[in-house]
Amino acid sequence: MSTDVSTTSMDQSEEGLNREDEQEMERRRLKLPEDGYEWKKYGQKFIKNIGKFRSYFKCQRENCMAKKRAEWSSRSDGELGEIRIVYDGVHSHDQHSSSASNSQETSASSSNANQYNLLTQVLGGDHQSTSTPRPPHA
DNA sequence: CCAATTTGACCAACC
DNA sequence: CGGTTGGTCAAATTG
């Protein structure tokens, strides 16, 4: 399969056309809130239950078992990138610095300040999820 | 070249 | 038992 094969030229114009563009565009539209930690994306899946995309981030640290997941509506056009960030895990190293979000926890954080605190935190513009149970209702 | 990032596949848990 | 969803890892690709 090599031998040159001139036929390999470009005949493929079927797909692979707006894949990068769309992805790039989507990426551009989304704005991930910086928490002050470094994350590494390790997966992305479409959650049918909510009809939204979910991205999985893991703390870059080795001893940091903290994980972050971001979910956002799939459709990009129409504007509005509502991103829901959910933190999971327990940090243990210093922050990377940078405007976290608030509370620098200057007080005597030590002890167990961020042991079980960043659990299920929701950022972004919450519309009416005051207490949406989540039942697609039938 | 390296690192980062992406997509797919695989696995586990749950109903 | 099977199907399904969610979640994670690995490989491939791009910059």
TrEMBL record:
Transmembrane segments: none annotated. Residues 97-115 have a biased composition (Low complexity). Keywords: DNA-binding, Nucleus, Transcription, Transcription regulation. SMART domains: WRKY. InterPro entries: WRKY_dom, WRKY_dom_sf, WRKY_plant. Residues 1-34, 90-138 are annotated as: Disordered. Residues 28-96 form the WRKY domain. GO terms for cellular component: nucleus. Residues 16-34 have a biased composition (Basic and acidic residues). Pfam families: WRKY. PANTHER family: OS03G0657400 PROTEIN (PTHR31221:SF261), WRKY TRANSCRIPTION FACTOR PROTEIN 1-RELATED (PTHR31221). This is WRKY domain-containing protein. It is found in: Nucleus. The keyword Thylakoid does not apply. Residues 1-11 have a biased composition (Polar residues). Its main location: nucleus. It comes from the Eukaryota. It comes from Acer negundo (Box elder). GO terms for molecular function: DNA-binding transcription factor activity; sequence-specific DNA binding.
